[in-house]
Please model this.
Amino acid sequence: MEKQVIQSVGFRNIVENGEVTGFQLRIRLPYYRGVYLSQVIPGHLTVDGEVFGSDEILWRVNGEDFRYADMRADCKTHWHPQEPATLIVKKPGGLAQGFHDICYGFCCTHSYMPPQMEALLDPDMPSPVLFREFGDNQHRRRLLIV
Model:
């Protein structure tokens, strides 16, 4: 796995029945202990200025697919820090060949953090307090689709 949260391996268009129906990318959890899906707060994904909301992104964790609403209620599925999650976005025609600028924000709650600090969490904004062990909320990368 790469050091960056947004992984280069797995960034590709999705082809179903010979037709490009969207794209996917893989992300790793920057937190060393892992989290349950109910702890994840996904934000918006921006690709080349086009914004995709958390309700447009399907998360694949441990081989199962989850929408954000499903994740909020899931206290059993654990996302391990050494297993990347795959984010799947429906977009007819997918992404063009070439380089793409990607920005994705997400953060996680932690039972031992004060509620006042967690109330400040916004996955679409840089973290108000940066703890290296938690990572930052915003992740950027330029990746290539061939």
